[in-house]
Amino acid sequence: MPGNSFGQFFRITTAGESHGPGNVVIIDGVPPGIPVSVDDLMVDINRRRPGQSKLTTQRKEADAPEFLAGIFEGRTTGTSVAILIRNTDQRSKDYSDIKDKYRPGHADYTYDARYGFRDYRGGGRSSARETTARVAAGVLAKKLIERDFGGRVTGYVCQVGSVKANIPSPQDVSLQQVEQLPDGSPNIVRCPDYDAAAKMIDVIDTVRMDTDSIGGVSEIVATGVPAGLGEPVFDKLKADLAKALFSLPAVLGVEYGIGFGCAELRGSENNDIFESRDGTITTATNRHGGMLGGISSGLPIVLRAAIKPTSSLAKEQPTVTRDGTPTAISTKGRHDPCLLPRFVPMGEAMVAIVLADHWLRWKAIDR
Amino acid sequence: MPGNSFGQFFRITTAGESHGPGNVVIIDGVPPGIPVSVDDLMVDINRRRPGQSKLTTQRKEADAPEFLAGIFEGRTTGTSVAILIRNTDQRSKDYSDIKDKYRPGHADYTYDARYGFRDYRGGGRSSARETTARVAAGVLAKKLIERDFGGRVTGYVCQVGSVKANIPSPQDVSLQQVEQLPDGSPNIVRCPDYDAAAKMIDVIDTVRMDTDSIGGVSEIVATGVPAGLGEPVFDKLKADLAKALFSLPAVLGVEYGIGFGCAELRGSENNDIFESRDGTITTATNRHGGMLGGISSGLPIVLRAAIKPTSSLAKEQPTVTRDGTPTAISTKGRHDPCLLPRFVPMGEAMVAIVLADHWLRWKAIDR
Amino acid sequence: MPGNSFGQFFRITTAGESHGPGNVVIIDGVPPGIPVSVDDLMVDINRRRPGQSKLTTQRKEADAPEFLAGIFEGRTTGTSVAILIRNTDQRSKDYSDIKDKYRPGHADYTYDARYGFRDYRGGGRSSARETTARVAAGVLAKKLIERDFGGRVTGYVCQVGSVKANIPSPQDVSLQQVEQLPDGSPNIVRCPDYDAAAKMIDVIDTVRMDTDSIGGVSEIVATGVPAGLGEPVFDKLKADLAKALFSLPAVLGVEYGIGFGCAELRGSENNDIFESRDGTITTATNRHGGMLGGISSGLPIVLRAAIKPTSSLAKEQPTVTRDGTPTAISTKGRHDPCLLPRFVPMGEAMVAIVLADHWLRWKAIDR
Amino acid sequence: MPGNSFGQFFRITTAGESHGPGNVVIIDGVPPGIPVSVDDLMVDINRRRPGQSKLTTQRKEADAPEFLAGIFEGRTTGTSVAILIRNTDQRSKDYSDIKDKYRPGHADYTYDARYGFRDYRGGGRSSARETTARVAAGVLAKKLIERDFGGRVTGYVCQVGSVKANIPSPQDVSLQQVEQLPDGSPNIVRCPDYDAAAKMIDVIDTVRMDTDSIGGVSEIVATGVPAGLGEPVFDKLKADLAKALFSLPAVLGVEYGIGFGCAELRGSENNDIFESRDGTITTATNRHGGMLGGISSGLPIVLRAAIKPTSSLAKEQPTVTRDGTPTAISTKGRHDPCLLPRFVPMGEAMVAIVLADHWLRWKAIDR
């Protein structure tokens, strides 16, 4: 049953619920000598943090990570790293209503089916709170791939409701564009097409005032990845990246490169043509999203994840109790009207972890 | 690096290339006592077989599987099962041209980047030939889930090019509808909407005569799956199913339930409302595709995979040689103009393997 | 590299060093509904604790475990359990001498060979301090096997130096016999043959006064284990148990049943003869140590581990520095003159974890 | 349940029984470019082969391995290698007696307890026949470690019954000494102390004529292993090596270095003292058997395994039937009177596989 580990070589194992003492991650397979500090962790933890803008839940979480193991004199030792992020602002009473009512779109019912016993004070293990630990681990993965091959992972929001961003060159989007508007103020929706960003904010504001929520799409781009990462059959790079993104809450679809658009194309339209540029074999177009046969091609890896609208609504929804009695539920306060802005660092973290894992796997056999 | 195994508990490990002696699969974790014969394997192997209709490659492959281990008196023994499918119609000379030229859309270049050494007589390990072993293993998975909980997995083609099928009730599509037309003749495109099927055949015929190819979408449905399968975090059922499908060649996108359509919906539109029916908690709609919080809900599991158009084209395409010299390539004969009809049994097999795996995982802790 | 996890289904993952913030264990695969408290953990943690008698190191460690996750209302939830045991009495200055000198018998040199970088303030990750986390996890494993099949794991010391205990019936040794003398005072050497225990204490006292140390043998017995646990090939129960014990510090040999004594026997002397007793098939003798073909036979499982004398000596020993310069080292104070008494709970924990793991594996396929 | 795989990175997965079509191994994680041929495999397969001398069973097995996958132009491709060894001389009728009688010392009873269903025509999956596949895989492991770091693994017999060999310098024993006597004739008992070898042959001859069998001890030595292989906690090199040896049939004990002898030593007697020799840090003595803290020290790795006397005896032994009725059994013909000579290549193979695995793991993080 051990479903709380991810990765073969750069492997994270997590524990923690929304309303327990905290969330902890053990990161195994980290090479020795990588400098890392709590401040480094905070960069992405703050990007994932609730309450960062009017677009996100107003819960306050201190989210102060502590290294429990694996770090000596500011560098990784090569043995397992452990990071603890304690829960603070839990307000258990807010959740007492959901003890016996199944929230639509949530895992309450399926949890009961699986375990017959459930921490009813929130999502428990299925709460997005759990992703804090992944984001912390992702910081180490990002450091490893940047140190070893200049790899970078950047995510952003490319669709909210029917508003779609125009991102002509995904590989050129910078973290600064994602985080800041031209005037230096925060880009709270994390869409680097600023016109679209303004419209997305309007959409989110509207659904928020309607006590409703809205879905969207996030794009994650990895640059600097050398050709040759990934395994030919089951552990194709695309397969592990897809599992990584689908393992995040609320993801209902994943595609890379041309994605579902490939269904309508002919082979002669879809194939990217190889050419030699400065002594390197590459392709001018990137409909293949940086992976061929499940192995990285050296081109930017471009993935998209579809995120459903937040299931928790202040608006009243019909449902049933554990014994099947019809009732209604409205989830009070403090929920994101749109999950997309906070999804970005989660998606980046999972992509970075997969790349770190496949990098180590590649080193083991090919050098 | 061991990327040739899939599954934690019901685990398959494969070896084999398109032009080596054969493909072999070891299936570990099969409970004892399941009746299985070579004839059982042939049902799905024949559905995957090349040369079955004008829509598929005209290669002839005998595809005669042999049980090497794990079967005694027609039943599984509980120890590892091995199945060998020898390669027969290899015609290595057909492929000599590709020794030094990189085929657009293929893994030739990425393989060289990974291994620096490659069986150039075809796709090698990345050939779709490898999936024969998965299809054979999938038959055992299907038998296990049907025996233990009445689970069934049925796939079909729902889009080819711009032709989309209308499938109002995915869970009601039968294997017979997928395989046969009302007049008993073979449904060669495996689309249960027969009007759409006729149009799809026209599209494929057209691209075939143009020495081109076309993409599409396949839908895979699992019925009878009890609520409670899947793990809450990394091994969410949706995550393992997505990895399973993305591990197949040519898959560029996977979605379940409402999928990418969720991006445009509000929470109040997207949430499926719980109700009690005959003492069972269920939902009237199934936008959640049978999984909530990564755990099965008891509703039909509905997945879709986007398949790119075949990369091999008889039409000449520009490319480069291993040393970067511009050249052109046309892949002679014997390629599927559309991968979709033969994808169906592959997708079914991978979905069945994931369900068998999570079923055993569930038994270990919950009974 | 992930070498910090153990078990396939009941799996523990640990992190922590002797001189970092603490040691943490994540236990995956724990079924829901098992009652457990911090007090339960303390029973075995106290048996492993330093400073418990004159026979052990005089270091004081508070060893107060904290559940971080996986427990709700005093019971396991079925999701991953995390336990943190903070380090308290570290006294880093005591260890400054060993920064550059390689302690004989320790892992200092091999760590530098592996990582090139080492937390020199003690054994780091290779310190026996790390086993606290295993002992805590072992408590959960013990609870699971006792609840599900009445399994019990009891260890004791059967040899110190040349003093060998006479234990005619290993399966009848009780925890009380191991922990207490007939007069109710603590059995500080944990040998249930009280005459031998007295002699062992004399031996340990003697080496302690000589600033030296002494080796020994511990026997671990598991009763109540049903026939049928274990896998036929690589994951034989004996193989996983041996790995479990060898993964503990200072273990140089493991045997079960007749062990190395089998080398001198004929088959007709060694084979245990099957018989039927009260409708159950069993054997009158147990030279096979409860396992045949790697699978449990229903008889008591009897294992022995040889433990080397503590490597750290107050007595001065010659050695070299990191750059190879000859020097000498004497490890001041606070080391166990004999590791055996504190080994007992560690060995029990590892055996219990293996049994819990194989129990869940058995349930997955056979029920 | 998947207990049919071994290794994390250099991983073998096997299937096959004594009386099925054959035994197959898939070897995952083999780096590309290693030259290997069927003749290479035959060297060790012939050493393991039955019928090679009067000391072994007189069964004839052709043991002709076939590469099914992973080899191209005589070299490994980097993808999974598969090897099939068909069974030929099965003579199923010889075994019909054991369908309902439990052979003392065998896994018949425990198999029934585990699976409730058993291939009764021999040991099935628990037959030593299964080790042929491991020996074949071991050849690839030996080639890898020799190519990459000059590693060599040599095993021999050091005890049969009460006859003990005197091997003053285990690391200097050559394959030729193990296989040949000074006069060039075969060293059929594989003991490099020729005086002891002669006595061992006498002992085996005696028990054979008594329709009995005899146990013994084998020593396996690995030289050229660099310092730094192994993981600090669960995957200690000693732990993985012990599991590897205990996973072989009939092994009841494993020790390394001074082994169980450590129990009687003081720390000052047992510690090996570090010194610098030619700029390398090493120890003059090797009581630590080449591993400290679970990590290789650069000294020869020296392991010993205790092997029980063959359980199958022509001599009649009492036993019971499946339903518990007392009966007697005598296993006709064709069994090894002593397992030791044929154990040597099995032990070598498993040790080589562990070293190959840890070598790849080390490369992944440390280079």
Automatic annotation (TrEMBL), chains A, B, C, D:
Its EC number(s): 4.2.3.5
Entries under InterPro entries matching the protein: Chorismate_synth, Chorismate_synth_AroC_sf, Chorismate_synthase_CS
Cofactor note: Reduced FMN (FMNH(2)).
Quaternary structure, from the entry: Homotetramer.
One Pfam family this sequence matches: Chorismate_synt
Listed pathway(s): Metabolic intermediate biosynthesis; chorismate biosynthesis; chorismate from D-erythrose 4-phosphate and phosphoenolpyruvate: step 7/7
Name of the protein in question: Chorismate synthase
Gene that this polypeptide is encoded by: aroC
Keywords: Amino-acid biosynthesis, Aromatic amino acid biosynthesis, FAD, Flavoprotein, FMN, Lyase, NADP
Sites where the protein binds FMN: 125-127, 293, 308-312, 334
Positions of transmembrane segments: none
Function: This reaction introduces a second double bond into the aromatic ring system.
Domain of life of the native organism: Bacteria
Enzyme class: lyase
Keyword Nucleus among UniProt keywords: no
Origin organism lineage: Bacteria, Pseudomonadati, Planctomycetota, Planctomycetia, Planctomycetales
Gene Ontology MF terms in the entry: chorismate synthase activity; FMN binding
Keyword Flavoprotein: yes
Catalytic activity from the UniProt record: 5-O-(1-carboxyvinyl)-3-phosphoshikimate = chorismate + phosphate
PANTHER family from the UniProt entry: CHORISMATE SYNTHASE (PTHR21085)
CDD domains cross-referenced by the UniProt entry: Chorismate_synthase
Family the entry assigns: Belongs to the chorismate synthase family.
Gene Ontology cellular-component terms listed: cytosol
GO biological process terms on file: amino acid biosynthetic process; aromatic amino acid family biosynthetic process; chorismate biosynthetic process
